[in-house]
Amino acid sequence: MKSPVPAESASELIDEKIKELGDWRGKTLAKVRKIIHAADPEVVEEVKWMGTPVWSHDGIICTGETYKSVVKLTFIKGAALADPKGLFNSSLEGNVRRAIDIHEGDKINEAALKALIRAAVVLNLENKSKPKPRRAKSKRAE
């Protein structure tokens, strides 16, 4: 199993990915990255799953995948987040995650995205502070 990429290296790898894309996808990824850092200055950048940028704070907040026609922000626990501005437009059928597909030319609602990011951090912190339920011990017949 691969060991995680150190945070400094992960940030550098994300910088390289943005530069290598060299088109609207790189600019979009750079923009959402900036919004994520503005929403949560304590966010940790990681690179997982074959070079996918990941932003975490006591658990994964979201990933930033790039495809030919879309930049996809996948919120790992998105189904548990309120989305009053309707940013989630992909992966809506799942029970846990939700995603935002950003196409070339789409305008990003920065305030709403920051609110989602902050809500994801709060959810991670709440889940971290809850004690994990213990399994009931089975009583063996004697």
UniProtKB/TrEMBL annotation:
InterPro entries with a match to the protein in the record: YdhG-like
Sequence ranges assigned to domain YdhG-like in this UniProt record: 26-121
Domain of life, per lineage: Bacteria
Family annotation (SUPFAM superfamilies): YdhG-like
Family annotation (Pfam families): DUF1801
Name of the protein this chain belongs to: DUF1801 domain-containing protein
Provenance organism: Pyxidicoccus parkwayensis
Origin organism lineage: Bacteria, Pseudomonadati, Myxococcota, Myxococcia, Myxococcales
